Request: fold
Amino acid sequence: MPESEHSEIRKLPLFRDMSDENFEILMRGSYVQTFPPLVEIVSEGEPSDFLHIVLSGSVSLYATWNERETSMTTVRPVSTFIIAASIKDAPYLMSAETLEKSRIVLVPSQDVRTVFEQDPQFARAVVTELAENYRLLVKTTKNLKLRASLERLANYILRQQKRAGGANEFDLSIRKRRLASFLGMTPESLSRAFKNLRDHGVSSKGGRVTIFDQQALEEFAHPNPLIDD
Amino acid sequence: MPESEHSEIRKLPLFRDMSDENFEILMRGSYVQTFPPLVEIVSEGEPSDFLHIVLSGSVSLYATWNERETSMTTVRPVSTFIIAASIKDAPYLMSAETLEKSRIVLVPSQDVRTVFEQDPQFARAVVTELAENYRLLVKTTKNLKLRASLERLANYILRQQKRAGGANEFDLSIRKRRLASFLGMTPESLSRAFKNLRDHGVSSKGGRVTIFDQQALEEFAHPNPLIDD
DNA sequence: GCACTGGCCTGACATTTGTCAAGCCCATGT
DNA sequence: ACATGGGCTTGACAAATGTCAGGCCAGTGC
Reply:
């Protein structure tokens, strides 16, 4: 692995505080791989052989059941995914596929568990990472259960606006088909939802969203830090 | 705190492996409290002052938004809840109320964080607990997004059957109103869902469920270890 | 026994969401 | 410019789910 990536990974909260020695142990068995778009790199149900780190590109985590499929989240650089399965040595609960050309580090789960047992700093960092992921998922679940689909879209747009820097015009960063799945609806319903949001201050054309009445949108969406932050 | 409870808590996976000294630090500031039924003991949004341990009774974790409320999970003895918020020193994302008379240990979050910093064994136990909770929540989310309400009920019944020892007749352990909320539907819809399950081998009267055609139910429910175990 | 209560069920209806088929739009390659 | 294909949109319809009002039933207290 090139030295530049080495040091980039070292800066991640997960690895920042651990000893050089243990970091070396983790990196020794790791390798970087570049995947083309739309490649499945992890399949749910398989043993969790690697902890993954997304260096560039983006990865979709999704799950399937009974011929159905749903998008759970999108992982962007620089962060890790499926750390819970690695630590517990349990099967993956989600599959992962690249959305675009992506560079991904694979760290053997066995090494993660070994170092986790030996390095208290690393163990603490893992806890922080897990606790954050857990809380994110609680928020996602609240979003799903407490809000109707139109409200979920409205709040998604507000979150996306923040991520994009706060301007009142910005791009959706994912394809609508995937957004629909992420929000728990069909593409057709999403299309109609966008139409309905015109009554609440939002217009859209293609992947471009314009908030022409911020106040109306916020009044409708009722964003809440315990769900949306 | 009585010695008997002390040693009961000590046996929990979370505290089993830590040093006596650090366990004492945790217990020193803790106290046991008995709550009557239907008392709110934690409110979402508040700072997380305590890690909670349910010794007896049961506690419902739920969340609210915009006048709506949804049941997230039920905590039964002996286990902890809201550990992620305690560790991160972040506000509670869920509220908690007793379902019945319950004995609950309150461990100051500050002590949890202090000991967490000092005791690698404890830190590891926290990771295991968090990873397990995280994976449970992933399963819950998959259940919600991939299954229709009738399918969720069917699988809930199969899980409950397992919990009850596998007999083909058993009690629902919670009131139907709460079950409906937990499954993400209205009480009326739940009532109709039970009716519809008669076509798939399940009958019910009051809180008592009878599976009269196990095979039919399983064929309809398609239980899956990556969601239901 | 009897009234009362809360939890649950039922029916009628409204709303939301999904399904299927067709069409549009835009980017791409020839 | 033209044909092609994918992604998105639209319309018509069906199915699922929620809402509201009323009724039933078992447990409780008088």
